[in-house]
Amino acid sequence: MTTTGAIAEPGARGAPGGPWWWARRRSMVLDVALALVAALECAVEGVGFAGDAGLPSAAGALIGLVAGASLVLRRRCPIAVVLVSIAVTPAEMGILLSVVALYTLAASEVPRRLTAALAGASVLGTLVVTFVRFDRNIAHDTNQMDLWLVLIFSVLMAVGLTAPPVLLGMYVGARRRLVESLRERADGLERELSLLAERAEERAVWARNEERTRIAREMHDVVAHRVSLMVVHAAALQATVAKDPEKAAKNAALVGDMGRQALMELREMLGVLRSSADGGAGEDSRAVADSRRLAEVAAQASARVAAVPPPPEEAAGDGGPRLDGIEALVGQSQAAGMAVELSVVGEERAYAPKVESTAYRVVQEALTNVHKHAPGAKAVVRLAHREGEVALQVENGPSDGGAGAGLPSGGNGLVGMRERVAALGGVFVSGATDAGGFRVSAVIPDRGRAPAAGPALPAAG
């Protein structure tokens, strides 16, 4: 608890705090030393005052000791100490007390009007006491001095004892407040920089996770469909071979096992890419281990699918698949034994590369899901060219109940399609149909423009 008007003197950073109202121990030592000196001065001057007033010397010394000792409260109650110094001015004691008290008052947080009033009272008291003292001395002197000279000397004496400590205290107080303001501003800037650093770190983590997710999605779209077709082909070969059934069945089973193993390793690689590093970016050893592990898994997967010819859209190497490759994509599924129908509505036009690539990947993933989850089902692919957008829909009927190829599913196919479409400002909807099948619909605006219609397409007649 601090009295109003006390000096706001926070201790230096790292300095030990002082007892009671002192912020630092050295401040306490200084005040106690000043109070002792002031008490000794006032006690000596109090003895002289007691002799002139006809009082016991002990009484004058005691008054001086109490008045001087009040200086120890200058930081706690600067107004009270100044009032004490003014009160003992008629006794011609407490010069050090008055000077230090006025300095402390001017340097404190006391309102300037109150400081000016107390400083004026001190000037007036000192002026009167000095004038009376010189006038008394002149009365006993044979050399008479002009009264105006006595008054001028008294004014100079009063102002000289009051103005310097007040001005110095005002300067020190203003400087202290400026330093505190600069320190608060520095602390504020430090907090802002810390907050900006935390936000930058969060953005870096977010960007890293987004990049990992994007890589996982790209690898899923590029590799999963091709490997799925390889497994479907192997299953069909195993079921329909006529010549040398035993040998063909063994070869087909080997191809199927290789494809399944490649897909399992691909899922493991996607899991590493999608998961965020718990230890942060500073764990370099873990990052290196993950990179080596990904390289090994990717090399194994590439070796197992190297014998399968790449789809036409990937061989082009022009930055990604395009919409004109959807017909070949449908032909691959038809070659694998799936009944797929392609319906194109509207005048064909060129879209932004990302739009065409996303539309192609959505159809690719949807057909892959039909291979995995609805073997033998009929599928319909609808593509509609609209003004400023492209709409597509892949719908399949219920499975015919035949044995599937045993393909593993990581559960990220629909999530990846939704993320791709949403990144371009499009709309993606998926869900089961009333007939027991499944439908995937998407509307993708061209060059980021908002879609003009919902994702549903009219059923083909």
UniProtKB/TrEMBL annotation:
Keywords, in A-Z order: ATP-binding, Kinase, Membrane, Nucleotide-binding, Phosphoprotein, Transferase, Transmembrane, Transmembrane helix, Two-component regulatory system
Recall the GO molecular function terms of this protein's record: kinase activity
Q: Per its UniProt record, what PANTHER family does this chain match?
A: NITRATE/NITRITE SENSOR PROTEIN NARX-RELATED, NITRATE_NITRITE SENSOR PROTEIN NARQ
| Highest taxon of source | Bacteria
Q: Which reaction does it catalyse?
A: ATP + protein L-histidine = ADP + protein N-phospho-L-histidine
Q: Does the keyword Kinase apply?
A: yes
Instruction: Tell me which EC number(s) this protein carries.
Output: 2.7.13.3
Transmembrane stretches in the record are: 28-49, 55-73, 80-103, 115-135, 147-172
| InterPro entries hit by this protein | DUF7134, HATPase_C_sf, Sensor_HK_TwoCompSys, Sig_transdc_His_kin_sub3_dim/P
Which segments does the entry list as coiled coil?
none
Residues covered by the Signal transduction histidine kinase subgroup 3 dimerisation and phosphoacceptor domain: 211-276
Q: What is this protein called?
A: histidine kinase
DUF7134 domain location, by residue?
20-156
Print the organism lineage: Bacteria, Bacillati, Actinomycetota, Actinomycetes, Kitasatosporales
Q: Name one Pfam family in it.
A: HisKA_3
Species the sequence originates in: Streptomyces gamaensis
